[in-house]
Structures are given as structure tokens and as C-alpha cells.
Amino acid sequence: MAVNTYLPALAVLIPLAGALLILVLPEDKYRERAVAALLTVSLNLIVVLSLLPPVMQGQLPQSPPLRLLPNLELTLRADPLSMAFALVAGSLWIFAIIYSLGYMKGEGGQGRYFFYYILSMSATMGVAFSGNLFSLYVFFEYLTLCTYPLVIHSGSTEAFKSGTRYIIYCLSGGGLILAAFFALQSLVPGAAFEPGGSLAPFLEGNRTMLAGAFLLLVAGFAVKAAVIPLHAWLPGAMVAPAPVSALLHAVAVVKSGAFGVIRVLYFIYNPAVIESLGLQDILAVLVSLSILLGSILALRQSVLKLRLAYSTIGQLGYIILGALLLTPAGLTGGILHLINHAFLKITLFFCAGQILKETGKSRLEELYGVGRRLPLTMACFSLAGLGLIGILPLNAFISKYYLIQGSLGGGKTVFAFVILASALLNAAYYLPVMVNAYFRQGTFTRPGGWETSPAMLIPTIILTACCFALGLFAHELSIPLAEKVIAHVF
Amino acid sequence: MVALADAPVIILAFVFLASIAAFFLVRRNRRWGEGFALVSSILVFLTILSLYPALREGGPVVSAYTFFSFPLAIHFRVDHLGYSMALLISFLWVLAVIYSRAYMAHNHALDRYYGFLLAALGASLGIVMAGDMLGLLLFFELMAVTSYVLVIHEEDPPAMFAGGKYIYMAMAAGFAVFFSTILLYFEAGDLAFGSSGLLTDATPFTLAIFLGFLTGFGIKAGAFPLHVWLPDAHPAAPAPVSALLSGVMVKIGVFGLIRVFYEVFSIGLIQQAGWHRITLALAVITILLGSALALRQDDLKRRLAYSTIAQVGYIYLGLSLLTEVALTGALFHIFAHAMMKGCLFLCAGAIILQTGKRRISHLGGIGLKMPLTMACFTLAALSMVGIPPFNGFLSKLLLSLGALDAGAPAYVFLLIISSLLNAAYYLPIVVAAFFAPPGETGGNSLEAPPVMLAPIIVLAAGTFVFALAPANWPLEMARLIAGTMINHF
């Protein structure tokens, strides 16, 4: 049931206004900028949270559309899937802003940094609340553009090179989406997101066109989700400052790709149409290869952040695989992993950032014994790493459980083995990091006082606690939301 | 006093809080911290002991609390098997904590050591008191992680290498159990114990579940062909940890398998499907291979580790013969072997600490310098060989009778051959210790300090006291458990 409200639009406009406010602040007004940034993201989280009760009651709050041309309008509205993404992004942004305040202390270009950082929140909210394919495309491109300056923040040659690659990949992905949008325009003008899609009546006679558009859409979003072989931008983008890598390249940007895939699969197409096109299995196999390859490549990385980046590739594959299983349990697993992986991976990236900031070291063999210098940081890192491996009672266990149920329930046992094999690989590339940090002798000494700035340490610790909470109280926190999405689309 | 239904939660909460407290206390003041760890472990043991009347009166009790509401809640359950395991575990832990005071006196990172020692106790107790497979898995993973830290405590290259092997195998074990648990839930829709068999059909799918569990728990138990981590990890750990690893932690793997045999499946189903033949074959290979390899080791602790593999084979054998007497033997051997092997590892630790010698060929005449230690070693070794009136004899007798019940006398010969092999690798150590001339002159006594001797003597006494005493409680308990489990179906 659609309800008119300005809240979804506000979720996009508040960060936009906040970003503009930060832009006009003079560079040396550090305190004011911090207050403005925190206020903006907190206010935004309140807006998102206030959308939650109506959505859980089955309403679909919708803002008045902005009509550009007939059948071409920007629509913002909230459904259960957008709430899942917006809630994760909205709450993580607060942690990331606090962390950034600690991490960027003493660095140059802070005004620019926070401007784009908040601006990209506006884009992410737009992606979450988009009500049709056109809006999703617009905010998708907007997200690419306003994260580009963050990738090249350091201004080094390497950063520019990576930034160029990033923008070429993401804009090309956007191009594919746009092409598909034009192709679908003749059948479903506007391509609004409806559960079950509205393409089913046009299936006969348009098979080739529908299959082509489907592949274009999935490929376009898969670029942002860094599915191999479309992933090459992600490792390079790790030159960005740690909070950027953490939030954008573990959570917001890559997740918006996975989110887009779910939108395409369940809100433009639907399981029946996709099965009749016969594309789900081949795509699931490709994604499985991406999962395994990502994990294997992660094993070979000797730089901590790169290892995390390749791990992201593997984990994003889980989400897309879950969606491609086309079963309720599979999609539940995908959505839960979208939530759970976000919390775990941002914790890992935060820890990597603290290590880099405090010791200046990024290569794994330089990090022997770093647990002595950064005991709490490494404790959080170890817990989050164990969580991603799938150890109880941390949260990723739950999403893996549903993914395996989904693959068994659909009679596709092979994907259960893919998830299991990938879990073993996860163990193989996370455990040595933890073990060497604690038990190998290094040159590190115990810290006097705080091991790192509390602005970085405290968010990391709270996030680790959140990972436990999401595992222990999954039934109260993440599962109801996922079930709401399932009830919406199946 | 604690009510039986509340006991698991209270005990586990206490142990995990105590492990955190011990970490900080040891860091602040070593003596206090060690005292605290000791008092906590004794308290846990006494609490578990005090539950016995309630268990005898009331039978198995399901805990009132549930946790982790996904997709089923984890709950706890105390039955006779879990209770006996918990009692044994907490008892050995008390001894290990006492022994550690002297053995670890000059070691590093004691805060970490005691913290993780207690955490591993909590994980082990959690496994045996878990009321469903999900809870068992949770604590199984937790035990892998906590015991890893104990295994690599020395942090020297051999320990790191052994630890690496250990943690990967343990993770693989966790995944195997995880995978089977998910398949089990998919098939049966429930994971709780106490329903006499969650699965009722033998299909390729349930066979996959069985094999997954067998792999997972087999790794932990150190059974062939998944034993490869054990001969490295057990010797590399500090002696009290080796005693715990060999004494109780491998048994937890077997415990998991018992749960699989009697709770996940039922003995009737296993027999009908013939899957016990898989574990029987593994048991035979494990027994012979473990003993044969033990013969070839010169490193004392490595020899003990291979001997553990062979002894786990006995328990496997008793479990897979599927008769009441054989199961009694297997359960009794869990207890008996914990006493003997715990004692042997603690003796080995005392020898290494006092003389710095690890090689058996260098231990000539050691019995003259460490008479008490080596006397206890001898008792435990004789029990291993299976000479009356020691525990080891009783368990072998029961296993042999069980094999005859099952109509498979060949296994009696297997047990006899294995006993001979045991004799061949234990007795030369004893003989050389007392009768070979000491390698170096100077007859100073090198006897271990009383704090280390006390646990050794208690365990050595444990190898025969119950076999001689008029009431053999461990055996009664094993009979009771085996009786209820076999007659249940």
C-alpha cells in the first residue's frame, strides 16, 4: 500500500544539504565540520529509522515523483529491501564518520574529504530508495561520481591511475544498465520496481530481447559488486584512505551493485521469467567461480588491505549467488549476508586502517607481532575474521546457513559445496594474519595509554559487539527484515 | 547447591567469566591469579560433583534457558553421558591447573595461558552439556580456537608448525560438522538430542550426513586417516596441555561420535545400514597404525601421542561393535585412558622440565633420579599394557567380551596384538629408567616439586584404585549409560 510521505526524499536531501554546509565551511573549522557531519548522519539515520515501522506494517512510503519526461521520473520510496540496505548504510555511516574524524586528523584536504563522504551517503540512500530502474541508474552513477574524489584523495600518481580505472569500470557498468533500460522501455515504460516485475506478459515473442537486457543489467551491476572478471577496479581503489575503503569499497559501493542485482532479479524480472529464460544456472556457476577465485586470489595477497579487498569479492559473490538461487531461503541468505558482511568487513577494514595509521605498515610479513602493539584492534580483527569464516555465534554463520539451505532446497547441492569450500579458503587467508599478529615475534612494543585514537578504536569495538549482537539476536534483528523482503517478493 | 536444570548455564557463565578474570588477575599479580584459576576450577569440579544426586533421582534434565534464537534455539541438557564427561573433564582440569603452577613457573605470557586454559574448560564443558547439535557445534568451534592458543604456547617454530596444522584441521573439522548439521536440519527439521534418533532412513543423503560428522569428530579424535595433526600438536604443547589434549579433548571427538550414533541416528539404523563397518575398519587401522608408529618414536612425548591414537582406536572399536558390553568398555576406556595418559604426559613434562631430556634413548637411569615420577610412570604404563589389576585391563576385557558378543572374535586377537605392541613401546622405557646405568654421574635427586608430583600421583592412583575398590563408580556409570543407550531403541 503506497503512502505519501517526504521521508524517502529527505533521506537523500539531508546528506546533500549537510554536504553543502560542509563545503561552505572554511578549511580550518575542524570542530564545526565534525559537528555538522555527525549531525547530518544522525539525522539521516533517524529519518531512515522512522520509515521502519510503516514498512514493517506493510506500507510503502513514497515521495512525490519528480517527472523529467513522460515515463521518465525519479521516484523515491521505501520497501523492505530498501530498508535493509538503508539501515545498514545509515548506521555504518555514523561509525565511519567518527572513525574518519580520528583517521583524518592532521591530514590535508579534510573539507573536500568530508564533503564527498557525506555526499556519497546521499547517493547511497538514493540507490536504496529508488523506486524504478531509471532512478536507480541515476543514483548509481551519482555514487560513482562522488566517490571518485575519495579514491584519488591522496593525489599520488597511483591514486590517479586507480581512480581512472575505477571510473572507467563503473561508468561502463552504468552504460550497460542504461542500454538495458532503453531496451526495456518499449515493454515496461519507466520500469518501476514491482515485486514479481511486470515483464511476465511480454515473455513470448521477446525472449531474446529480455534475455539480452537481463544479462546487460546483471553485468552492469556486477561491475560494482566486483564479480570476477569485472573486479579489476576494486583492488586498485584500495589506495583510498582506510575509512573510504571500509565504507565504500566494503559496504556502500559494492553492496549497491549486489542490491541492484537483487532489484533486477526480483523487481523487474521474477524467478519464473528467469527460469523460463534459463539463465539462472549459468550465472550462478559464474558467480561461484568468482567466489572461489576471489578467495584463492585473496590467499596470494601479501598486503593486508588487498587481502581484504579480494575477500570482499568472494563475499559479494555469496549475496549474488543467494539471489540467483531463486528460492526464498537463498534470497534470505543473500539479504542476511548483505547485512552481516557489511558489519564484519567494515570492522576488518577499520582495524587495517588503525594498523596502517599507527605502525605505517601494510604488508603482512611486516605485521608479525602487531598484536602486542595493538591488542584491542587485533582482538576485534580476529573476532571479525572468525565471524567471516563462519564461526558461531558471530553473524555470518547465519547467512551461510540460509545460503546452504537455499541451495539444498533448490536441489542445487553443488553450490552448498562452493560455500563450504570458500569458507575453508576464508579460514586459510584470515587465520595466518591473526596467528602471526599474536604469536610471531616482531619488533612491536606495548603501547603506553590508548593504543590508537579513541575515535577509531571505540567505533571498531562497538562494531565488533554489533557483529555478536547480529549473530546472537538474529531472530530479533536481521531475520525479520529479511523475512519481510521474502514476503514482499515471493 | 545448584538445581540441575540451571547448572549448565551457571557453570558455563562462571567459567567464561573466570577465564576473563584470570587473564587480568595473572597479569596484575601472578600468585593471586594462579590461586584464582585453581579455586575456580575446583569450584567447577565440586559443583558438577554435587549435581550427582539430582541426576540419579531425576534423570536427564533439559535446561530451562535457550539462547541464540536462530533458526532453533541452543539449549543445554544434562544426561548421564554428558555428566560423566563433564566430571572427568573438570577433574583433569583441576590437576592440570595445579601442575601448571610449577611447570609454567618460568614460562612467558601466563595471563594468556590461564585465561585460555579456563576458556578451553568452558568450551569442553559446553560440548558435553549441549542439548542439540547447534550448541555442540558452537562449543566445538570455541574449543578449537581456545585450545589452539594453548598448543602454540611456546611460540617456537615446532609449536607454530604444529599449531598451524592443528588449527587448519580443527577448522576443517568445524566445517564438516557445520555442514552435516545443516544437512541434518534440512532433513530432520530438528537438532535436539534425546529423541532416540533424528534420522530414520538410510539414504545417500543421510550417509553424507554421517560421513560429515565422522570426518569432523574423527579429526578431533585423531582417528586414522585424520590423525596427522595429533603427533605434532600434542608434543608441542606444554605438558599440562598435552595431558588435557590427550586425556580429554580427543575424547570429545569420540563423544561427538557417540552423539551421532545414538542421537542423530539410532543404533538400529546404523546396524541395518552397516555404517558401523566404516568405523570398525578405521578402528582396526587406527589401533595398529598408532601402535606401530609409536614404536618408532624416540621423542618421549611423540611416542605418547602416537599411543593416544592407538587408544582412541579402542574407543572407536568399542563404539562400533554395537553391543552393550563393548560400549561399556569404550565408555570405561574414556575414563581409564584419561587417567593413564594424563599421568604419562605429566610425568613426561616433569622429566623434560627437570632434566631437559626429551629423547627416550637419553633416559637411561632416570628412575634413580626421579623415583616417584618414574614409579607413577610405570604404573600408568602397566595399565596401558593392560595388566591386571589396572583399569586398562578392565577396559580391554570388556572390549574383548563385547567383541565376542558381537560374534567377531578376530577383534580379541587384535586387542592382544595391540597389547603386545603397547608392551613393546612402554616397557623398554621403564626398564631403561630403572636398570640402565645413569648417563652421567652425580646422583643428585632431580625429583619434581610436590606441586607437580601431587597430580601425577593422583592420576597414577586413579589407574588402579577403582579397579581394586569394591565399588567401581566409573564402571557402574559406564554400565548404566551403555545399558540405557543400547536398550533405548
Give a brief outline of the structure.
The complex is a heterodimer of chains A (490) and B (489). Chain A is mainly alpha-helical and 490 residues long. Chain A has a domain at 327-490.
Give a verbal description of the structure.
The complex is a heterodimer of chains A (490) and B (489). The model of chain A has no long low-confidence stretch (mean pLDDT 90). Chain A has helices at residues 7-24, 30-56, 80-103, 110-129, 133-151, 157-185, 207-224, 233-236, 242-268, 271-277, 280-299, 304-324, 328-359, 370-373, 375-389, 396-409, 413-439, 454-472, 478-489; strands at 2-4, 60-62, 66-69, 72-74. In chain A, α9 packs antiparallel against α13 (328-359) and α12 (304-324) packs antiparallel against α17. Chain A is mainly alpha-helical and 490 residues long. The two termini of chain B are 34 Å apart. In chain B, β1 (61-67) and β2 form a beta hairpin. Chain B has 489 residues and is an all-alpha fold. Chain B has two domains: 1-274, no CATH class; 296-489, no CATH class. The longest helix of chain B is centred in the middle third of the chain and has 32 residues, at 157-188. The radius of gyration of chain B is 21 Å and the shape is globular.
Descriptive labels:
heterodimer; A: 490 residues; mainly alpha; two-stranded parallel ribbon; two-stranded antiparallel ribbon; 19 helices; 73% helix; globular; B: 489 residues; 2 domains; two-stranded antiparallel sheet; 21 helices; 2 strands
Task: State the low-pLDDT regions of chain A, or none.
Answer: none
The class by helix and strand makeup of chain B works out as: mainly alpha
Strand order of the largest sheet of chain B: 1-2
Largest sheet of chain B: 2 strands, antiparallel
Helix/strand/pairing category of chain A: mainly alpha
* Strand fraction of chain A: under 5%
Helices and strands of chain B, in N-to-C order? HHHEEHHHHHHHHHHHHHHHHHH
* Oligomer type: heterodimer
Annotation, overall tally of beta strands of chain B:
2
The number of helices of chain A is 19
Overall outline of chain B: globular
The first-to-last residue Cα distance of chain A is 17 Å
Radius of gyration of chain B (Å): 21 Å
How much is the average pLDDT of chain A? 90
Unreliable sequence segments of chain B: none
Shape of chain A: globular
Share of residues in helices of chain A: over 70%
Biggest sheet strand order of chain A reads 1-2
Helix count of chain B? 21
